[in-house]
Design a protein that fits this description.
The structure holds two protein chains of two kinds. Chain A has helices at about 1-15, 15-30, 40-50, 60-80, 95-115, 120-150, 155-160, 170-190, 205-210, 215-240, 250-275, 280-300; one strand spanning about 55. Chain A is mostly helical. Chain A has one domain (about 1-300). The N and C termini of chain A lie far apart (about 45 Å). Chain B is mainly alpha-helical. Chain B folds into four domains: about 1-270, no CATH class; about 270-535 and about 565-580, no CATH class; about 580-590 and about 600-625, no CATH class; about 635-668. Chain B contains 26 helices and five strands. In chain B, the strands form two sheets. Chain B has a two-stranded antiparallel sheet. The radius of gyration of chain B is 28 Å and the shape is globular. Classes of the chains: A mainly alpha, B mainly alpha. At the A-B interface, strand 1, helix 4, helix 5, helix 6 and helix 10 of A face helix 14, helix 15, helix 16, helix 21 and strand 3 of B. Strand 1 (about 55) of chain A pairs parallel with strand 3 of chain B.
């Protein structure tokens, strides 16, 4: 029961903090003070109180987009175990549902973008669906490696520290898929080097370009659900790169929060030290991720 | 008793078009009679199929009244019943749709013909599914194939339609030829044409392999497996839309039925078969969706998606075959469940999508994606139905496509986690993931360009909603998609009995799908996801004040026009470039020069890999190599008379006593 409450409160309240930590890290690298780490909470509460402007071109699909994205992100968050704790929902084959929920969100957010009839948003949507064609197989290769290592088709048992994780046989594939998953994380959450969440140069963006016309509460929903997505995919990655668990169960929660904040800081570091890739080079990066995960699997079954 | 119901439905649908022939050409009486007869036939057939599939009645066998080939039997087992459901569902809904889409008043020249052959196609398919005798199966097969030709060429006055019809006819007869060989071999090997599982010692491995390859080819042409799919895009695009829906949703499934049924007859499949079927499925799936993305024509695009979905179906079948070779009942159950459920699902959502495409064509008179746009406002029902179909075909939760793809995934993942075994099926997993992502890209493109945004042409601006007779079938099919998505446990008994039926020769007892895959949980989660979105919607609708309306902001551009929207072509461009080596896209770029250049048009298209790049060039190469023959074939009657004369002289000359002639003159 405590576990469930902890899981729900982390899922609902922690995500904006990750954005704050990323921004703080970037500010620190740039030598600025930067906004408070709680700034995203203030932004969200302000957006939720603002009015809504809708384009006369749009239909109900435009409004459904952010809501579907939020619902799927939250459901995915219920499927994934946070650190050493168990996930609230867990059944055989939940890893497939987990991956496909992001597909559903993508369908509706890109449709909402096309609903405005704007060329910029069309560009963003086209990029989003194209890059997903490369990151989805990479994600599935990574899940395949984890399933093979653990011999289970349930995210909960699949992700808990595999017994022989440190044997040479398993460690090498895990390192490879960790790299692949990190790239997928950066691409799916629209971070540098794939996308820059800060610029407003429409021709070069993916996610920000898709949401140009969303305003007020709808835009707040989008910001919040992308933060939830960062938390969910980050938790998946953490299981691969930091599969530590304490013997005392009550320590696992704080440990997990420290880890995920650390991961946010790492994302901030990557954003600070790298430039965004040219749009035509992004597929190479994603193919790279696909190859990392694929080689990881081949190493495992050789 | 259920078999009698099905046979009654079969004869009723075969004759459903006949009364219409006696009505005047412009009266709507005939079409109503045909629709009513088909509706009754569909209800009877569905009742029979459902009853038999749920096993309320033991397996039944009757003699089919075609005494020329002895006493061919028809029977109804769970597998047949499973495939009868889409046949009769679409068979009943199509004529209802046709009342609004293809009214006799507007199509006096071909309406009667269309309904006559519609009924015959349905009857042919029903016969294929229930026959237990190879020749009866062949009778049904040819009835279906030939009637479908007349359905495709309903608009025979258009050259594209005629050409598509010819290509279809050639392709289907290639398949039939393979079936002739298959049945002849079967008769030699087993001693009769009866379709009963062969004993495992009766057939040598070479013969088994030959039978398998012939079945895969003969039925695969009809199913539209990737290298044999070449007839499919043209035929589906140029037929009337409810015919396309029938062809794509149901007729293709007869090919799948053939393969599935035949595999249940052949004992001890080598594991190479499963590998081959799985590979073919993966290739069809991936290339089908990639080619779909390159299309500009709404119905051609949907046709390529059929190739993709047949690929997914075959992947499931491949997993099941591998399971049978390696004696893993769980792979058999999951793979075959995915395969069969996808057969149903595809027949629901693909028919739905084609019917929606038909409403779009009905409302705008064009199939070109880049000439449409903004139809969601004028056609709310059609766009909602299309959205359901699109989400379902992408295999996304909470609809039915996800359930079947999930079963196929589970089957393949089982190969990965099974201790001690390594199954090549695991490489299907990332392929299926990529197919899913590409399908999302493709259907966002279609839904976005056709239904969202601003109308791109006047025709799209003047669009109107489809009449009730067209909306009802769409809503029924959309309802099926939602029902299976939200309550997948409902299909478990159908799947279990069909799997047990297929597995009867396998030896190992079949496992229950519900035990291997928690379908109930999937259903609960799908319902809660839907409720969750609905709850958010209600929450936002209640608390947000009435939103202000304006033009699309678009970073402050003050005068957006419909021409500035992203088109389907530009949406797909990155993926087309990414897969350029397979798609080989052609762009005709006009050369623009001078200060005031003349009007120019830019065109781009993606041709079919097999038809346009292999078969047609090969055909014209063969034709060229026989060019010399044209010297003799000039079309002049005088020449032909001369040829006849020469032939006669030669024939007469053969009677001439050369030997005595020569002896008489030279050898004296």
């Amino acid at each position: 029961m405590i576990d469930l409450l902890f899981h729900l409160s982390v899922l609902l309240f922690l995500p904006p903090l990750l954005l704050g930590v990323i921004n703080k890290t970037k500010a620190w690298f740039a030598g600025r003070t930067g906004p408070s780490v709680f700034q995203p909470y203030y932004d969200l509460s302000k957006l939720m109180r603002r009015g809504l402007v809708l384009s006369a071109t749009t239909t109900w699909v435009f409004r459904a987009g952010p809501l579907v994205a939020l619902a799927t992100a939250l459901l995915a968050g219920l499927l994934i175990p946070f650190g050493g704790l168990n996930a609230p929902i867990s059944f055989t084959g939940d890893l497939i549902l987990f991956a496909y929920l992001f597909g559903l969100a993508r369908f509706f957010t890109t449709s909402a973008a096309l609903d405005t009839g704007s060329a910029f948003e069309g560009m963003g949507a086209a990029r989003e669906v194209t890059f997903a064609c490369l990151s989805e197989p990479a994600l599935f290769f990574a899940l395949l490696v984890l399933a093979k290592v653990s011999g289970s088709l349930t995210l909960a048992t699949l992700l808990h520290a595999p017994a022989g994780a440190l044997s040479a046989n398993v460690a090498a594939p895990l390192v490879l898929i960790a790299i692949g998953l990190f790239i997928v994380l950066l691409a799916e959450t629209c971070r540098i080097p794939v996308d820059d969440p800060n610029t407003h140069l429409e021709l070069t963006m993916i996610h920000e370009a898709m949401v140009l016309d969303h305003s007020g509460p709808l835009f707040g929903t989008i910001l919040y659900s992308s933060a939830v997505k960062l938390l969910v995919l980050g938790s998946l990655l953490l299981h691969v790169i930091a599969p530590f668990e304490f013997d005392q169960p009550w320590l696992n929660g704080p440990l997990y929060i420290l880890e995920i904040l650390g991961l946010a800081a790492v994302v901030g570091v990557v954003e600070s030290v790298m430039a965004r890739l040219q749009m035509r080079h992004v597929p190479y990066l994603l193919v790279g991720a696909l190859l990392f995960c694929g080689f990881g699997f081949i190493l495992l079954i050789r | 008793m259920f078999l009698d119901l099905v046979l009654l439905a079969l004869f009723l649908s075969a004759f459903s078009g006949l009364p219409g022939l006696f009505f005047p050409r412009r009266s709507s009486g005939g079409e109503r009679v045909a629709a009513a007869l088909m509706g009754v036939a569909a209800l009877l057939g569905l009742a029979g199929a459902v009853g038999a599939a749920l096993g309320w009645d033991g397996p039944a066998v009757r003699v089919f009244p075609w005494f020329a080939v002895g006493t061919p039997e028809v029977g109804l087992d769970a597998l047949s019943a499973f495939f009868l459901v889409p046949v009769f569902l679409m068979g009943g809904l199509g004529p209802l749709y046709g009342l609004g889409y293809w009214p006799q008043r507007q199509h006096p020249s071909n309406g009667q013909r269309l309904r006559l052959f519609w009924g015959l196609t349905i009857a042919g398919m029903a016969l294929v599914v229930v026959s237990r005798h190879a020749l009866a199966l062949l009778l049904g097969w040819e009835t279906m194939a030939l009637s479908a030709y007349f359905l495709i060429t309903a608009e025979g006055h258009r050259p594209e339609s005629r050409q598509a019809g010819w290509i279809y006819l050639i392709a289907t007869h290639m398949g039939t030829l393979a079936l002739f060989a298959l049945f002849a071999l079967w008769q030699r090997a087993t001693g009769s044409y009866v379709l009963q599982p062969a004993a495992s010692s009766a057939l040598s491995l070479g013969l088994l392999n030959l039978l398998f390859v012939l079945a895969l080819f003969g039925f695969g042409v009809k199913a539209g497996v990737m290298p044999l799919h070449f007839w499919l895009p043209g035929a589906h695009a140029n037929a009337p839309s409810h015919v396309s829906a029938l062809m794509s949703g149901v007729v293709l499934k007869m090919g799948i039925y053939g393969i599935v049924r035949w595999l249940s007859l052949l004992p001890d499949p080598p594991s190479a078969w499963g590998g081959l079927v799985l590979t073919l499925g993966a290739v069809s799936g991936l290339l089908g969706v990639v080619f779909a993305i390159g299309q500009h024509d709404l119905k051609r695009l949907l046709a390529y998606h059929s190739v993709e979905n047949i690929g997914i179906i075959l992947m499931g079948l491949g997993v099941a075959l591998l399971g049978r070779s390696t004696h893993r009942p769980d792979w058999v159950a999951l793979g075959l469940a995915g395969c069969l459920l996808h057969v149903w699902n595809h027949s629901f959502f693909k028919s739905l999508l084609f019917l929606c495409a038909g409403s779009v064509v009905h409302a705008t008179r064009t199939r070109q994606l880049d000439r449409l746009g903004g139809l969601a406002k004028a056609m709310p029902w059609t766009s909602a139905c299309f959205l359901v179909g699109a989400v379902a075909i992408c295999g996304l939760p909470p609809l039915n496509g996800f359930v079947s793809e999930w079963l196929v995934y589970l089957g393949m993942f089982r190969g990965a986690v099974a201790p001690g075994t390594a199954s090549g099926a695991v490489f299907g997993i990332p392929v299926l993931a990529m197919i899913g992502a590409l399908a999302v890209a493709c259907f966002v493109k279609v839904f976005g360009t056709v239904f969202l945004g601003e109308p791109r042409t006047g025709a799209a601006e003047r669009a109107h909603e489809a009449p009730l007779t067209m909306r009802l079938p769409m809503l029924a099919l959309a309802g099926c998609c939602v029902l299976i998505g939200l309550a997948p446990v409902l299909v478990v008994p159908f799947l279990d009995s069909a799997i047990a039926c297929w597995n009867a020769t396998g030896g190992a007892p079949a496992e229950s799908v519900a035990r291997l895959a928690p379908l109930a949980v999937i259903g609960i989660l799908a319902i809660s996801l839907t409720l969750c979105v609905a709850g958010f919607w209600a929450f936002f609708a209640r608390r947000a004040e009435v939103p202000r309306r304006g033009i699309t902001w678009d970073c402050g551009y003050a005068r957006p026009t419909p021409r500035m929207q992203y088109t389907a072509t530009s949406f797909a461009q990155m993926i087309v470039v990414l897969f350029g080596s397979v798609l080989n896209p052609h762009t005709h770029r006009p050369r623009v020069h001078g200060l005031f250049p003349a009007r120019a048009r830019l065109q781009s298209h993606v041709d079919d890999a097999v038809l346009d790049r292999v078969l047609l060039p090969l055909g014209s190469r063969i034709e060229e190599s026989f060019n010399w023959f044209h010297r003799f074939q000039r079309g002049l009657t005088q020449h032909y008379v001369l040829y006849i004369l020469i032939a006669l002289l030669l024939l007469l000359g053969s009677m001439f006593p050369f030997k005595t002639f020569i002896e008489h003159w030279f050898a004296r």
